Amino acid sequence: MVIVMSTSATEAEIQGVVSKIEECRFQVHRSTGVTRTVLGAIGKTDDFDLRRIEILPGVESVTRIGEPFKLASRSFHKDDTVIELGGVRIGGDSIVVMAGPCAVESRDQIRQIAAIVAEAGARVLRGGAFKPRSSPYSFQGLGLEGLKYLREAGDAEGLLVVTEVMEASQIEPILEYADILQVGARNMQNFSLLRRLGEVRKPILLKRGISATIEEWLMSAEYIMAGGNYQVILCERGIRTFERLTRNTLDISAIPVVKKLSHLPIIVDPSHAVGIRDKVIPVARAAVAVGSDGLLVEVHTDPEKALSDGPQSLYPEGFRLLMDSVRRIAPVVGKRLT
Ligand code: PEP
Ligand code: MN
After folding, report:
1. By Cβ atoms counted within 10 A, which residue in 28, 177, 208, 302 is the most buried?
2. Which of 181, 182, 307 has most ligand 1 atoms within 8 Å of CB, for mutation?
3. What is the pTM of this model?
4. What's the CATH fold of domain 83-337?
5. Which residues of the chain have pLDDT under 50?
């Protein structure tokens, strides 16, 4: 970490900071400039509380050098992590498309949508069985019954399936039916859930929280990885900003930022990011162009009657158009559909 002393710091204050840093088992390097002194503290800072130095008299600022996350960091693992699952490659030079309805609504609904998205080139079927709705009066999902329908539809079309886990008690039933477990934006910092998912040996799709910084998001990935589950797929799904004309604001720059900091695959959910059907395709194109390792897209055969997120769900023809764009943009960024 680097400690910048204020211009008015006295020699006694500087010495006070030096002793404190040494006491905390750091090596100190002092650099005295014309107007101020800067101290470099060498040592392991990942779990060091910077405030212990910040509160000392004469200190202007303390900055951590290096990342607080380790297993998720690119300095720990240089090459891209590629998750291989039933012939589907997630990460590296592949683009994976996960598509389906927001929620599994009936056996017929999910079977029909699965056939459409598979035919268009998706490799993973999405569909919520346990839904985290903003209102307790909204449709909460079909639960276990929904999981069964999702699995059946995936199997019928040769698709992997991804579904959301909202709490630890759902892990076991979901593991029985799903290939990938999704942690929703609202649960990104549910650390006890993340810890439990660290014990799981199936990939976890970790959505970014609506107000989470990239560092907080990577720390959540670290929680899962610290438990021994290295198969984490990040998903940027828009963050909350002052803008009201879209449901959220897609943080498109998060993709190159994460790619530099981490080796984990990162995909984009344009549906929840914009929340309006006619914006989904253009934003999905941008996601592929910026280097996303895939897309998570909501598709419905009858969005007007959908039990959740109909207004942001693509019609089948919209989804086919999107897939066509993905196929054409992917080679420009050196990638191809898995
Ligand atoms: C979803 O994918 O259906 C969902 C609820 O997403 P998020 O957690 O990003 O809101
Ligand atoms: Mn949804």
Report:
1. 208
2. 182
3. 0.90
4. TIM Barrel (3.20.20)
5. none
